[in-house]
Write a structure and sequence with these properties.
Strand 16 and strand 17 form a beta hairpin. By secondary structure, the protein is α+β, with helices and mostly antiparallel strands. The chain has 24 helices and 26 strands. Helix 1 packs antiparallel against helix 2.
Length: 690
């Protein structure tokens, strides 16, 4: 039995070592060598052994010695990372060595003055170690004989809060140091951060649950680390970067004689160290480092608010000493603030190229993120409600990198009595068309797509596109120039263009202009489904346009329809019916449609067909490969005119597959399912009624 227990104990030891190694490779080196599923299997196996044989995995609980001898799962077991019993409060820990703060410099001149003070005091040249100033929560972690013993927040620098159980849940922090060449007592200092991706996910989950969101990753990291329930901390995907040593015993232990070297030692013991750390030999190199990091700031995986500049040589650090609660030999070279408070003076509403109506806050100008900001996005009505923001509120404005400034919170204590609600417009501020917001959608949109000046370019690009009126030579750049030069205001104006007017465009000679006029003339003759698709009504694609055309047969009947009638059409649901109703309720849109007919746009009349004559009614057809005698869209329209539903993929419900040249996987699947297959000649025979 003893032998068996020894074997199980060795297996537990091996699993702990293996899982900790994989944690290090994944969370520190970003170089995993096993799959997530295999990692999970190892964790499950360890947990089962620990639960089945608890006596084989117990050690002395050093925190409970004063109350008697207690045992617990060993400190370096990955099982400690999932969180334990919730605390009622945090105990206090007195730091073995004070955790000091840093003085700041804010521009090149102030850093040059800092450098001059140090060189004058030392009378020698200096090398600096430069690293990002991480925007999180400073912590101290104590290791005894290589095993994590306790962790504390900075607190007031002398006394911090005991956050040991929460720190154990952070997977980038080693529970046991790597190797065997480390001091018997080692205090490591660093920053607990929440990576940007984890922050976004956390707030996304909060929004989904209707809970309060965190303002920034720093607050999220601090709030997560100070949870009394360590299981909550474990779920928050916190990270850690080591940036300094605290107490080391014995003092004679062989530490590197420069700060950069000590960071490399920390890295060798299993701690994450920022890859951005760099040694600089001059003021110009430090300033170049600062500028480079600030330029790349938004691309980093974590938030920073500056860079930390430290004298690299440890002997020089000791000689320079400290002043008040900060070292003389280090400073924080701060970036321009990314968050500031200011007054919300009003709200304007802008209309985007797709018709989205966006509220924009008018702010009392404030310098934030390196620029003066007077406007900030409020996104949509839901965001206004979430923030609870009103006009005349004092708000916190954030500008990170090149991101558009946004309001992230209000200062409720400063709200004046005359603060007023923000009212979303019922009609478009550009064209006065109805503003539509479908239930369940976040964005409100202008319904005047063909008429609204804000949407004009996108509407006409769509109108001229291949699947719409297919005007050959009418590319995006041509449309943009036509509108910028005020030659076109609505789609109907395209049919009034002359060759001489078109020659006013860049790179458009008389021959090209003449060809474009001819293409516009050809495009007048179209089909009813193409015309409906070209109008750009929201969510009315090719299939829906074809179904509408086949159901109503004429434009007049379609224009006169209401939502109840639209819903009777195949594939038209409540939301699409609302879009159609709102579109044709706008007199502006109807005027544009009528002007297109007056300009000569026409299509063959769709004859009323008795339902029993729809030879393909109820059948599902699929087209694949290249058709040489018939345009794919025309083939689709003719099949739909015979009552068929034309699907994009093959399934067991498919009645027939038309296989053109170079047919691929759809043909293979149809053959496997035993589905009827026709070539192009077979299709033409069906369309001809044979």
């Amino acid at each position: 039995m003893a032998k068996n227990n020894k074997g199980i104990s060795q297996e537990i030891e091996h699993l702990i070592s293996e899982i900790n190694e994989h944690d290090h490779r994944y969370h520190v080196l970003d170089d995993p060598i096993i799959t997530d599923s295999e990692y999970d299997r190892l964790k499950i196996k360890l947990k089962k052994l620990e639960n089945r044989f608890p006596a084989l995995n117990l050690i002395l609980d050093l925190n409970a010695v004063s109350e008697g001898v207690h045992t617990s799962i060993r400190f370096d077991s990955p099982s400690r990372r999932v969180g334990g019993k919730a605390l009622s409060k945090f105990d206090q820990i007195t730091h073995l060595k004070p955790m000091l703060s840093l003085d700041n410099v804010f521009n090149d001149e102030e850093f040059e003055a800092f450098h001059a003070r140090l060189t004058n005091r030392l009378g020698t040249t200096l090398r600096f170690c430069c690293e990002p100033k991480l925007d999180g929560l400073a912590v101290s972690i104590l290791y005894r004989d290589g095993v994590l013993e306790r962790a504390a927040t900075r607190g007031d620098g002398e006394i911090g809060e005991d956050i040991t159980e929460n720190v154990r849940t952070i997977r980038s922090i080693p529970l046991k140091l790597r190797g065997d060449n480390f001091p018997p007592l080692l205090e490591v200092r660093g920053e607990v951060i929440m990576p940007k991706q984890a922050f976004d996910s956390l707030n996304e989950r909060a929004r989904a649950k209707g809970e309060k969101e965190f303002v920034n990753p720093r607050n999220a990291a601090a709030g997560s680390l100070r949870q009394l329930d360590s299981k909550i901390t474990a779920s928050r995907s916190l990270g850690f970067y080591a940036y300094a040593l605290g107490v080391v015993e014995p003092e004679t232990w062989g530490l590197a004689d420069h700060h950069y070297g000590q960071l490399l030692q920390l890295k060798s013991w299993g701690f994450p160290v920022s890859a951005e750390v760099k040694q600089c030999d001059s003021v110009s190199e430090v300033i170049a480092y600062y500028t480079d990091i600030m330029t790349r700031r938004s691309a980093l995986a974590y938030e920073i608010d500056g860079v930390v500049i430290k004298v690299d040589n440890i002997a020089q650090q000791l000689k320079l000493g400290f002043v008040a609660k900060a070292p003389r030999w280090a400073t924080a070279f701060k970036f321009p603030a990314q968050e500031e408070m200011t007054l919300l003076e009003g709200v304007d509403f802008q209309v985007g190229r797709t018709g989205a109506v966006t509220p924009v806050a008018r702010l009392k100008p404030i310098f934030v993120g390196g620029v003066t900001v007077s406007n900030a996005t409020l996104h949509n009505a839901d965001e206004i409600a979430r923030l609870g923001v009103k006009i005349k509120d004092t708000v916190i404005v954030r500008r990170a990198g090149d991101v558009i400034p946004q309001i992230v919170a209000i200062v409720a204590e400063k709200r004046p009595d005359d603060a007023c609600e923000i009212e979303f417009p019922q009609t478009c501020p550009v064209c006065d068309s109805l503003v539509e917001r479908i239930e369940g959608e976040v964005v409100a949109r202008c319904t005047g797509g063909l008429f609204c000046e804000a949407q004009r370019k996108e509407a006409i690009k769509h109108f001229a596109s291949r699947k719409a009126l297919d005007i050959d030579g009418m590319g995006d750049k041509v449309v943009e120039q036509l509108i910028d030069k005020e030659l076109v205001e609505s789609p109907a104006d395209l049919f009034k263009l002359s060759a001489s007017a078109i020659t006013m465009l860049d790179r458009m000679g008389l021959k090209s202009a003449t060809n474009l006029v001819a293409a516009i003339e050809v495009a007048k003759k179209t089909t009813f489904p193409r015309f409906l698709y070209a109008l750009g009504i929201r969510e009315v694609g090719e299939a829906t346009a074809a179904n509408l055309a086949n159901y109503f047969k004429s434009l007049d009947k379609l224009k006169a329809a209401n939502a109840e009638e639209f819903i009777k059409v195949d594939d038209v649901g409540t939301i699409v019916a609302q879009h159609l109703t709102h579109f044709f309720a706008q007199s502006h849109n109807v005027e544009v449609v009528d002007s297109l007919i007056e300009a000569g746009v026409n299509w063959p009349v769709i004859e009323e067909v008795a339902e029993e004559s729809l030879s393909l009614k109820g059948q599902t057809w699929v087209l694949t490969g290249t058709l040489t005698q018939l345009n794919r869209n025309d083939a689709k329209a003719q099949l739909q005119a015979l009552g068929a539903k034309v699907a994009a993929s093959v399934s067991k419900n498919t009645d027939c597959l038309v296989a053109g040249e170079a047919a691929g996987s759809k043909l293979t699947k149809a053959q496997d399912l035993g589905i009827k297959i026709l070539d192009e000649d077979g299709l033409l025979a069906v369309l001809a009624g044979e």
